[in-house]
Amino acid sequence: MKKLIVLLSLVTVLILGGVGVRQVWLSQQNIYEENGIKMIAKTEDRTFMVYRQAEFHDHFLTGVNLGATQPGSFPGELAIPKETYLRWFQQIHDLHSDVIRVYTTMMPAFYEALYEFNQSSKRPLYLMQGVWINEYDARDLGDAFGDDEALLNTFIQDTTDLIDIIHGQAELPFQYGFAHGEYTYDVSPYVIGWILGVEWDPMFVLGTNEAHLGMPIHEGDYVSNTAQAQPFEIFLARVADAIVSYEVQTYQFMRPVSFVNWLTTDHLTHPNEPDLKEDLVSVNTEHLKAEDAFIAGLFASYHVYPYYPEFMNYSQTYRDYIDDRGQVNPYKAYLLDLYANLSVPVFVAEFGVPASRGKTHDAIHSGFNQGFLSEVEQGQMIAHMLEDIHDAQYAGGFVFAWQDEWFKRTWNTMDFDLPLRRPLWSNVQTNEQHFGLMAFDPGTHQRVRYVDGDPSDWLGSEPILKSDRFELHTAFDERYLYLYLNAPGFDFEHDELWLPIMTNRDQGNDHVLNTGVTFSHNVDFLIKIKGPHHSVMLVDPYYDPFYFLYHELLELLPKDEQFRQKNTGVFVDMYQALSAEIYLPQDELTIPFSQHHTGKLTYGMANPRHEAYHSLADFYVQDGHLELKIPWQMLNISDPSSKMMLSDFYRNRAFEHEPIEGLFIGVSYVNDPGETTHIDMASTTWEGWDFPTWHERLKQSYAIVKEAFKHFGWGS
Question: Residues spanned by CATH 3.20.20.80 within the chain?
């Protein structure tokens, strides 16, 4: 009877006592207490351990980085609703992921969803919580202690606010661009560590060190510095000590602490690195030490990608390393080197590759490039890197990223679009937008068209051009211009189709040099379909942003006087820049400017519902039906949502924008360019938008990563 009374009392407390009591009831077996201090995770020597089911476990932890956006929003808008988080958490759980990592304070909906999900899940999702610092303020100050330690104080305040938030004891006032609201859900039993800060700008670190030479080291109650610490490392120790002290004093709780780091500011030496900034200064977290009272301990977190910085390609040590597979593997060589020079548990807090059409950099030994990878290749490469991370004895690895991010920019495409409109459309030429395991595809429930040779989704479409040989149709969405050609007599293996496109009415070619081909309108772009391996999209060099930027403005490549003239009849290949010329100091070797042929068209099944889906496919042909999708940026459309295009480059010698009414497109067989061929063109246009449509789709990489997580991780 006594047990029954106690049980009924507990149930009554649960009903009347609210959320906080329910949390203790469900989670008390997963909270460890030592000398009056609660913990759910701690470090011992090189081991990171999580307390679960009344004991500490030291399993390899897998996870994903979760961004703060969906299409139509910037990160500061924090627009993701609770029901979306709940859906994502289930998919992340099904991925066999142990951990979600976030970079900054999230809206209450995130923590509410995490709490609710974990109440109904036998295996909880843990959180690695980040705290962002304003990189623009850091850049402007150039000193972590500048302006009377304003940045330091803000960093500490933001973190102590987060401590209150995860304990369900906070209310943040509205501030545009920041999380706000009432935080009442106690998720502290699921936050296994702090990963604080950002990828540190080397000039910011160097500026701090040089401004405070001889600064006394920090000696704290929980985190101190070693005698070798530089001023920036003293800054980190002060932050860590302050937040541990606050959580212990306020909640009698502590958790392991780490700071973001990356290869640019690691504490290793890379003598063959061509860019001085990439090996200029170190942030050495070995110069932070945990005092005896800090029983949760310190760990290290690094963002490690296979293609950047250049020493990942050219280090004389790393490029000679052969892994257990018998392959050259600079990535694993770096992981081993880094691990050997640390004394605490280490996480690779970011790793991955983008499944994008556009490309920014090559990993010359492995092919794990920054872009122009299919979703299958993305998954295979992530699994490969996860195995390397696991075998190098790291505590875990967190994939970047869970979802694609339409707002992102990339250095080799950002001059060609309108920054404030980026979240409103999907630019597959910008690789930074496509690191996710989950895609946001245009269309509320499905895409407006699928490139698969099946014309059924074109039923009811009116052709813009029609003859006894062709019907040409167009469609548009937030990612592509779609072309459909119904050509019953088209012989894909032997016929050559030319499709000219005009965007800018004040320039372009009305003919093709040294041929008999002419056009009814001046043409900026020319698509040639010639079998599965030799199809290409060309551009009038006068309207080629690659040529204008790298040949004319930056003068990194030779100029051609003819390319500055209108209506030359010349069309050239389309490229993306990968790297300017670099000099390798150890090798005493100059590597020339490198570029990627982005105008080459890939043949394949482009319908993700099909088992033969190839995510890089641009066009498909079946039974005289040709379908083609062209990324907006390849047409120099700088914002399809507001119908803006790049204007004449040479007018003001800059990238500027002007409205576009629509396109003119034509089509013809040109099996013999020497014959006289006149191609008529017809107009087509689209409706702009102020908010995009999209639907979620798990990429092919998701299933591959799921198997890797299951094999190497704890969460299976």
Answer: 58-438+696-712
